[in-house]
Write a structure and sequence with these properties.
This protein is an all-alpha fold and 171 residues long. The chain is 64% helix and 2% strand. It contains five helices and two strands, in the order βαααααβ. The protein has helices at residues 12-38, 68-71, 73-100, 105-130, 135-158, and strands at residues 9-10, 160-161. The relative contact order is 0.21.
């Protein structure tokens, strides 16, 4: 017998979207590790532009190209910004789905919690960047990333797609 409350069942589309959000948050955390490890947050302390550019001309200056994603601080910061903006757009989409889709009350509330946590993380990230990564904001940004990731994990664990059958969960 399923341990998931039937009130927590959501459509497969919502379930897949939430797993995508979890995956994106995980990739974002890894990208944040690159930001911290390379000191990429210490340059281009403007938003939304990077020293006057939407896309910097030195974005892919290293060869082979793949090295830029791990060693070029311009590329590392750019990919972190782009991932953050994608995540915020997905969060806005989740809020929209909350109001337009037939979703049970508890999952609907969780979508708002997750979307709010993502929005807060985005604001903390911008504040961290604009203030040249002071330790207190950097730590807050990193800790809040774990909060966002934890919320996404819990939501994915609690919500069950409607196609799942009772008795298929191993305990």
């Amino acid at each position: 017998e399923s341990r998931i409350n039937p009130a927590w069942r959501v459509s497969p589309k919502i379930s897949i979207t939430l797993f995508g959000v979890l995956t994106l948050v995980f990739v974002m955390v890894l990208s944040g590790g690159l930001m911290a490890g390379t000191g990429a947050g210490l340059v281009y302390n403007t938003f939304p532009f990077m020293a006057g550019y939407w896309i910097r001309p030195d974005l892919f200056e290293l060869h082979p190209i793949w090295r830029n994603y791990f060693e070029n601080i311009t590329t590392i910061q750019f990919q972190h910004r782009v991932l953050a903006m994608i995540l915020v757009m997905v969060a806005i989409g989740l809020v929209y789905r909350r109001f337009t889709a037939k979703i049970p009350v508890l999952p609907r509330r969780l979508l708002i919690v997750l979307s709010s946590a993502i929005g807060i993380q985005f604001i903390i990230g911008i504040a961290t960047l604009l203030n040249r990564t002071p330790v207190h904001l950097t730590l807050l940004h990193q800790c809040w990333a774990m909060v966002v990731f934890s919320i996404a994990v819990v939501i994915c664990a609690l919500l069950e797609p409607k196609w799942a059958r009772a008795g298929t969960h191993n305990g």
